[in-house]
Amino acid sequence: MYHQVRGQGVIKLYIFYNMLEVADKLFSSFGQDIFDALFWSSTHSSSSFVWMFVHLFIAIIYTWLHTILVLLQATTLNVAFNSHTQALLAIMMSNNFVELKGSVFKKFAKANLFQMSCSDVRERFHIFTLLTVVVVRNMMAVNWKFEHFMEMLPDLALVIIAEIIVDWLKHAFITKFNEIAAEVYQDFTITIAFDVVRSRDEKAFSDYSDQVSRRMGFTPIPLTIMLIRVITQTFDFTITSVQAIPGITWMLLLSLKIINGMVVLGKACGHVKRYRDLQEKTECEIFRKRMLMMKSKSAPNSPRISLIDFSDVLHQTAANKGFTVSDLMSHWDELNCSLETTPTPEPRRTKSLAIFK
To answer: Residue 125's closest CA among 198, 24, 207?
Structure first.
């Protein structure tokens, strides 16, 4: 497959890589529905065995096609790194800046910005995995010489840095042109935190990692199969000294997964607790009145998410006009100062009758 891809022209490979990138996003979107249908038919007794096998067959075909697609992406990226002129790599990196043109001049609501943020997170992880495959294959070809890795390191860093810079510029101009406050990303963080906490519930519908991956638009099964295929081709597991490596690697990855899950859950609980504290303070009447006074003097802004009834960025009604976390945090210092300087009047019923004449 590598030599067939390498024999193509630069422009043809550039177009081919863009087609693979678009197809990967489309496959990821309906792949989640395919696995949900398989999960539902295998867990519900009302579903017949015929439909379960039909859904299983469709899931296998989808996984096979998506795995080949991801493998072609990794192969094309490997060809770009190994080209002598590296013109293909430069063209592929310039494609990130073309993404700015299609994003910054469009009208974005808060829900659309949240979807784009999740897509960018998923895209960064996907590119990092593809670069890992490229490094492993190239290091195997040169017998794991460290000098060759140092030669590849500038190109690897350039690809990652270009991706990060483009994402920063894209989000900066989108928030500027659509008049969205930067504190809106705190709302997105709380949404992800709620997903993590709710997925750990005993009554959750699916696995705890499925809800977060669905939010991100990430389908891990094809990517995992591609990694397993590349690793089995890279290392010779018939050697006795190498046979213990898969077991040790599995134990290390399992430990890393447990530790990572504990850290993520702790961070999510911290964000949820902070949100609950903000919610309690926002429900006080003095904060509500002063927020209304400040909002009445400010210019109209982007659609907001209710802090009083916060659950999901994508499921807020237009009639819900509460306060967001970003609203409260942007005026938090002013509210605290005004609360300290403005004395609370003493209730009339607590005054002694002796002072009345």
So the answer is: 24
